[in-house]
Write the structure tokens for this entry.
Amino acid sequence: MAESIKNKNIEIVGFACSYCSFKASEMAGSLRMKYPEGVKLIEVPCSSRVDPAFIIKALIEGADGVFVAGCHPGDCHFIKGNYYTRRKIAALKEMFNAFSIDGRLRLFWVSASEARRFVDKVTDMYNNIKEKKK
Amino acid sequence: MRIGIFICHCGHNIKSTVDIEGLKGHFREMVNIACVEDYPFMCSEPGQALIKSSIERLGLDRVIIAACTKTLHQDMFKNLVRDAGLNPFLLRRVSIREHCSWTGEDKDKNTKKAMRLIRAGIYSSAHYEPLEEKQVEVNKSALILGGGISGMSAAAFLARAGMDVYLVEKEDELGGHVRRVGDVWPIRERGRDIIEGMVKELKTLDNVHIFTSSRLVSFGGSFGNYEAVIKTKDGEISITAGGVIVAIGFTAFDPSVKPELQYGVDKRVVTTLEFEENMDDLPLKEGSRVAILHCIGSRDDTIGRPYCSRICCINAIKTGEKIKNHIKDSYVESFYMDVRSHPRGGEEFYEDTQEKGVLFTRANISEVIPEERGVILRGEDTLLGMAFEREFDLVILSVGMSPSKDNHEIASLLKITLDKDRFFLEAHPKLRPYDTALKGIFIAGTCSGPKDMEESINHGRASAVKLYGLLNLGYAFIEPFVAYVDPKRCSGCRMCEQACVAKAIKFDDNLHIVKVEEAACMGCGLCNATCPSSAIALRGYKDTMIDDEISALTEAV
């Protein structure tokens, strides 16, 4: 049992806003950049669409990590949706901190042109979680 | 429910790293799946026919297309589904190319990932509902950024077609780089004359509004009604435009990035552009020895410019020919990597120039050493495999095209994408070379990569035609992804009203609940995430859809 948990693949669910981060992920694909298969995306119109309940649900259902990716502050297509996201995630992290699982949630900003940044961010998160699981 | 799954091979792009047969077998076992089909190219005519006939034959009520990302071919697939008699919002695209086959190398893992992604599509599409696109009025006007030859070509077309055109140029006069070209090959006209002719034409058209010494400072709105603020000499002006064409051109490569060339240090090292502008001021006399260096700022990985700039070979040949024609007994040697004289007539021109006595030497130049008696070139002849050292009176650098320094700023204002070389990225390199990912925003000319004049003009006109086609009707359809309220659940707490950035949520004092003004709703979904009683929901991204996607992505396969 312990062995099977150890060898289990890391699964990360990411919420990506359709205007920036999802575009960056499309570009990362087009440029044939590689990142771990365990990273899977759910497209949302804006990062502010992400209800904290989604994040909790993903973790309860077995995801090892969840990230929310949005436009850089000031660049939100919906003017200030990402500011709401920032506050929501900060509050949620505070709560996760109490359970020592705050490392399993990340928030980052990736613009539509930053395919490399997207890949770096998700790979770093993946490696970090993998390291902790050992 | 009758779900049809269509898996695209995309040639080898998906097939080589995802086990298509495995996917088919997996999904055939699932309930409610009416068919699982695969085809080498779902976007091809037979692929489309396969989808259409399956919908009609099996009476599908959900269509899952697992292929490229949904930014590509979306309108085509939607129309296809609509033609087959199904509401296009019951179509779900699953990206197993950009988000799976291209990003992972392990076939087993990729296949498992594709399974989950397709499952996520199936689960969430179960909650889809038929929707109708909203018709909105569009402003029949265009904002063109950049008054170079490409932007001006676009402006002239659109203005003649009867649209209002706002042409914004950061310099104090129109014309861009072409204005500086002394001798345009092969027509042998001055660039300035060509530009003056175009400017004159634009000025006769009443519906062209030219802003020189101006810049875009802010940008918002959506297709059909983009709102821009232009900072001009006389203050800021707000403009509403239906669409935008970005034609901000390039920056000539600055050779001082390569210190071994001594550009800017010694006056006898000049660029092709400087030569074009003032040949007479250069130290050229009877019997002068001139070296021309190709590929300066092109095909050079060490300075982050791995691409070919396409125009500099012809420029170099033209420069050599001109010196040979004008300077008696001159010795002209051109040092190249490969000569790419690709425009029509270029190869013949290259041969003619060689016959006129310009010497072409395949070489790598390692350094330029300025001495009092002359400039010494040190390098290697790559055909003979021998080092050489030669003395010249003048060194001309055939400089390539670098992305404009403004690209980053414009890209972030307009929220469009740059490629790895920092030129603007097209929506599809073959099928949509003028479009960006945003509807109604097009790119034209050298801002999307090196082009010669002819290509830049064509690119500008093509973008203009595409934009005209979008705006001509005066109305457009936009996606109906707006929020709506379930009156039975709304408690009237008004939290969504406070959160709504678009101010689209209004409180009804009589009923004591909120309602959404659909025209104002931007569709971000913040209200949906805010509502404590799940009374307000965003169409297309409802809680149930996302919840089930999460389940699909986390469950075992």
User: Anything to note?
Assistant: The first strand of chain B starts at residue 3 and ends at 8.
